[in-house]
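Weekly sync, protein design subgroup
Attendees: M.S., D.O., the rotation student, P.L. (late)

Item 1: inverse folding check
M.S. brought a backbone from last month's batch and wanted to see whether the design step gives back something sensible before we order anything. D.O. pointed out we never logged the input encoding, so this time it goes straight into the notes. Structure tokens as presented (156 positions):
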């Protein structure tokens, strides 16, 4: 029995579809990957910051703020003791305009985030436990997330 081969055009079209599917799937989840990347950066940065590591996560700070950040962070290392922290809110923006992003719709493209943290700390010379809210402002520079720091609340 002789079997007919599918036409050449059909085989080429099928191969093209099979090869293009991973590209389509990858493009559809760019915003979701950016959201995942932000989550990872937040965990690493906050762990380094609160554990008083040598550089305090300064690798995630925007270059123009890094020197000031390191100077203030050295004071934080010697004066501040962290007891508890909690992420309370996440707000997302595209070029300064607020966006609604949730788990049902993670595909919204964004390049800025404001993360509201609640910290419980003591700041020497006092030993009184102090609780305050602090906004971390993050911007995506096309490759990774960078922090615009404000460490002043930790030094009051």
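Designed sequence read out in the meeting:
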């Amino acid at each position: 029995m002789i079997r007919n081969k599918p036409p050449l055009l059909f085989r080429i079209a099928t191969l093209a579809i099979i090869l293009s599917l991973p590209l389509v799937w990858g493009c559809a989840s760019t915003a979701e990957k950016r959201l995942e990347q932000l989550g990872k950066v937040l965990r690493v940065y906050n762990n380094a910051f609160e554990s008083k590591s040598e550089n305090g996560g300064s690798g995630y700070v925007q270059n123009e703020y890094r020197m000031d950040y390191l100077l203030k962070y050295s004071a934080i290392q010697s004066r501040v003791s962290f007891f508890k922290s909690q992420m309370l809110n996440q707000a997302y923006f595209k070029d300064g305009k607020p966006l609604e992003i949730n788990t049902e719709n993670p595909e919204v493209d964004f390049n800025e985030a404001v993360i509201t943290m609640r910290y419980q700390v003591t700041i020497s010379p006092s030993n009184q436990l102090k609780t305050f809210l602090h906004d971390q402002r993050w911007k995506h520079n096309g490759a990774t997330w960078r922090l615009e720091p404000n460490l002043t609340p930790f030094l009051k």
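Discussion: Strands lie at 80-94, 97-99, 112-123, 130-140, 145-148. The radius of gyration is 23 Å.
Action: P.L. to compare against the previous round before Friday.
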